[in-house]
Write a structure and sequence with these properties.
Length: 394
């Protein structure tokens, strides 16, 4: 039988982060059962993303709340507490909360929290078992440490924009803040590893994580392609640097994705489009040959695929066990029975009314994720948390 509280029940997280990378991490910890207190600046109205709209949630009377869709994407399972850390009272309040916490997550510029006595060097003296995760644009060290960092800048500096977009077009960012999101994922992994060490040895530690470092890390095959060959990769649109055909192809009524991963699949694909001879052509018979002759092959494939309707291409290639799929818009995505079956869209009751959110992809058989509280309105839990003997109790 599954345990409803989640595997991190009892873990206490003090969240001094905002925008996307840190909140992605702390929401994931919260989904896994941790108690999360989110600290927000009363002078600015809280997390910057509360103002990153529309769209916003409205109440029954049509009044706009401070729950923007952007904010809600990464802030469920948290309490919102308004504290001004620039004041002596605010600093004392943070230290009291830190005395109860297992984890502190922050994304201030390196050195910024030292002037408030809330940096790792200071807090670790008082709370040596605290796991302290610092997220920044470029990291706590290096020549760029003092520079601000945003997702778009990380995508540019870290190289992914040079690989994304039409070959003849401008460099292009990924459509979502993927550098922030992946940084949040790495932060979660680092925190769980540090918790494991703390539980075994009683020692906390600082996790120094940057948007740019994590972006460089997920250059993956293209990064190692460059390090191995010395050749700078070029933009290929939707094409793959190491597999052909692996691309988006126009059909008679839309587009379809083909992901032909081996020579057997290629032969079956060629049979479907009426060009079985291509599978025996020395220029195309193997994947290395297809890579070398990518343009010549696509000159045949693109007009051939364009003669079929999308549904037919998908149905016929699925029958032939050739990897194929649609290019869906978000209305189509969230209407699929697959999304419903996997509970990737969830409804929660927020202060202004019901909100629709994206579910957590983790499916744990014994300790599933839980959705205990909707994204909070700004400062909703300030008084109850600050007055509580144990502020992390639900």
């Amino acid at each position: 039988m599954a345990v409803s509280e989640g595997p991190l029940k009892g873990v206490k997280v003090l969240d001094l982060s905002r925008i996307l990378a840190g909140p992605t991490c702390t929401q994931l910890l919260g989904d896994l059962g941790a108690s999360v207190i989110k600290i927000e600046n009363p002078a600015t109205g809280g997390d910057d993303t509360r103002q990153w709209g529309p769209p916003y949630v409205e109440d029954a009377d049509g009044n706009r709340s401070d729950l923007s869709a952007y904010f809600m994407s990464t802030n469920r399972n948290k309490k919102s507490v308004a504290i001004d850390i620039t004041t002596a009272e605010g600093q004392a309040q943070i230290k009291r909360l830190a005395s109860h916490a297992d984890i502190l997550v922050e994304n201030f510029k390196p050195g910024c929290l030292a002037k408030y006595g809330l940096d790792y060097a200071t807090l670790s003296q008082e709370f040596p078992s605290l796991v302290y995760c610092s997220i920044s644009g470029y990291g706590q060290t290096g020549p760029n440490a003092s520079k601000p960092g945003y997702d778009l800048m990380a995508q540019g500096y870290g190289g992914i924009m040079s690989l994304t977009g039409d070959p003849e077009g401008a460099p292009m960012k990924v459509g979502v803040g993927i550098s922030d999101v992946m940084c949040g994922m790495y932060a979660t992994v680092g925190i769980l590893a540090a918790l494991r060490h703390r539980d075994q040895n009683g020692e906390g530690q600082q996790i120094d994580l940057s948007l740019v470092d994590t972006q460089v890390s997920w250059l993956i095959n293209e990064g190692v392609n460059y390090l191995t060959s010395g050749e700078v990769p070029q933009r290929r649109g939707n094409g793959h640097p190491n597999i052909v055909p692996y691309d988006v192809y126009e059909t008679a009524d839309g587009h379809v994705i083909l992901a032909v991963g081996n020579d057997g699949q290629f032969r079956r694909f060629c049979d479907f489009i009426g060009h079985p001879e291509l599978a025996d052509d020395p220029r195309f018979a193997t994947n290395p040959a297809r890579l070398e002759n990518r343009d010549a092959l696509n000159a045949v494939l693109r007009p051939a695929v364009r003669t079929y309707a999308t549904a037919m291409v998908i149905a016929e290639l699925e029958t032939r066990k050739v990897p194929v799929g649609p290019v869906q818009t978000l209305d189509q995505v969230f209407a699929t029975d697959q999304v419903a079956a996997r509970q990737m869209q969830i409804a929660m009751r927020a202060a202004p009314g019901e909100v629709q959110l994206i579910g957590n992809p983790l499916k744990l058989s014994r300790t599933p994720v839980t959705y205990r509280s909707a994204p909070p309105v700004f400062g909703a839990d300030t008084q109850s948390v600050l007055d509580a003997e144990n502020p992390f109790e639900d």
